[in-house]
Amino acid sequence: MKNKIKKLSLTRKFFISMILSVTFLMILLICLEIYHSFNKYQLEVELLQVRSMGDQKDLIRNEVDKVIFYISELIIFSQQLPPESQMDLPELKQFLISEIIDLRYRSDGYFFGSTRDGEPLFSNGIITQGTGSVWDLTDPDGVKIIQKQQEAFDNPNGVFTEYSWRKLNQSEPSPKISYTKAVPELDWIIGTGVYLVDINQQISYQKKQLRSLLQNRTISYLTLLFAYFLLSFLIIKHFSSNIKSNIESFSHFFFKASDNYDNIDLDSLHYSEFREIATAANIMIDKRKKSDDALKLSENKYKQLIETTSEGFWMINPEMITLEVNESVCQMLGYSPDQIIGKSPIDFIDENDQHIFLTQFNQSPDLIHNSYEMHFTSKSGNKIPCHIKATNLYYQNNEFYAAFAFITDITDRKKYEQKLKDYHDHLEDLIKIRTKDLEEKNEELKKYNKLFIGREFRIKELRDQVKAMEEKLDSLSPNNS
Questions:
Q1: Cα separation values, 120 from 130, 174, 197, Å
Q2: CATH assignment of 310-409, given 1.10.10.10, 3.30.450.20, 3.40.50.300, 3.10.100.10?
Q3: Do residues 415 and 428 touch, judged by C-beta distance below 8 A?
Q4: Are the CB atoms for 341 and 314 separated by under 8 Å?
Q5: What backbone torsions phi and psi does residue 380 show, to the nearest 5 degrees?
Q6: Is 103 exposed, middle or buried (0-12, 13-18, 19+ CB in 10 A)?
Q7: Of 200-214, 251-265, 291-305, 311-325, which has the strongest mean pLDDT?
Q8: Contact indicator for 241, 273 with CB cutoff of 8 Å
Q9: Residue 47 CA from chain centroid, whole number
Q10: 12-46 b/e with 16+ CB inside 10 Å = b?
Q11: Under CATH, what is the fold of the domain 1-241?
């Protein structure tokens, strides 16, 4: 066997060695990639279960918070009405129940409510007042459902409760998790829930998709291995035919092509295999030239876009040194590009807002996009409120190498917001003045009413006195004597 190997030509040895090396390397890489994909699949399945449960908890918490907010706003609104228009507490409660019972989210999400002492209020669009206390309501596992949910009165953030409950279309109870939160003003708790079987169905569906993705990826890797092996076989066979006679031509070609995009002369090659490789190399050079031309065109479009946009553009490196700004930034701040490039944005940010920029920048490696507001200081000393939309740039190895931001001057918007606030405050003042005027008119009316009644009594007294005097005069007249 050794003698046969020794007798092989250099070209044959090169061909066999390359084929074996490439095959072994590709098998190793594919195996590692499949192993990595499998581990990633297992991790994604675990994260999927945790994330799905968290998403469902967040969903029911948010839905309950919306209802609590709606109730709170209605209570505040009722309290702000004039006394004669306000509803008493029982009337307000009934109104709230009628507003809440038909609220829904998704296709089957409904809300339920009860009082502090365990009296039911409503559930799934049905008013359950007066149906009897459910304080001792217990699931098959012995969980005191209402008593656990009532813990929301001691926890302002609400409570999650796990128990078994019958679905609307089933006779057997299913595991369920609910979220309840107290409404102290009404002595109520409001809640909603989700069945774990629904979560598990979603998880199973997503796990099936992940398995299918893993299978497709594995098949793709194996197909890629076969295709790469076949391609390697053909390329190595071409290069091993007569590498010495044409190596200089190819070396010269690649040397020139690196700078000038020159094509290889096909007539200088003696074999059709090398002509095919040379043709492919020429096509590669042509495509590279087109790609470079397209890249230059793209860069020109990029520069034109940055320079003509009305928004400010600012790019910095990881050391917070300015790499590029556009004309909009220069006009906004009153500096030339040379006065900004090479400096840190900190030099142009209002000192009261510098901590905002540092906080956002320090957490930027963990965020691809970020949005916030702060003030810049122009060359003339004006404070300019701006909205920042920042984006981070990374190498293929996820190494952060630069960040850029589009900057919008929101001075007009801030002025409008202030005007809107002033108008709102003025409107509230007018309402207070009008309310005070009405109260003063009511007081005056009460006073006039008292005066009128007093005058009536005084007239009656005078009439009685006149009548008494007339009777006295009659008694003293001569006719009576």
A1: 8, 21, 26
A2: 3.30.450.20
A3: no
A4: no
A5: -85, -5
A6: middle
A7: 311-325
A8: yes
A9: 19
A10: eeebeebbeebeeebeeebeebeeeeeeebeebee
A11: Beta-Lactamase (3.30.450)
Of 281, 236, 277, 231, nearest to 254 by C-alpha is: 281
Q: If DSSP states are collapsed to H, E and C, what string results for 97-111?
A: HHHHCCCCECCCECC
Task: Provide the CB-side half-sphere exposure for 131 (13 A, CA).
Answer: 12
Under a CB-based contact definition with an 8 Å cutoff, are residues 325 and 315 in contact?
yes
Q: Which residue, 403, 211, 208, is CA-closest to 318?
A: 403
pLDDT digits (tens, 9 = 90+) for 111-128: 899 998 889 998 888 888
Other C-beta atoms closer than 10 Å to the C-beta of 333 total 21
What's the pTM value of the predicted model, to 2 decimals? 0.38
Cα separation, 265 vs 253, in Å, equals 8
Band of pLDDT at residue 359, cut at 50, 70 and 90: confident
Question: Using 50, 70 and 90 to split pLDDT, how confident is the model at 207?
Answer: low
Cross-sheet strand order for the sheet of 322-325: 322-325, 312-316, 400-409, 383-394, 369-377
Sheet harboring 159-166: ordered strands across? 126-127, 120-123, 112-115, 188-195, 173-183, 159-166
Tokens 């690196």 belong to 258
Q: Which range (158-172, 190-204, 380-394) has the least confidence?
A: 190-204
Euclidean distance between CA atoms 431 and 415, whole angstroms: 24
* Annotated domain spans of the chain: 1-241, 244-304, 310-409, 421-476
Is there a contact between 117 and 143 (Cβ–Cβ < 8 Å)?
no
Beta bridge partners of 112: 123, 191
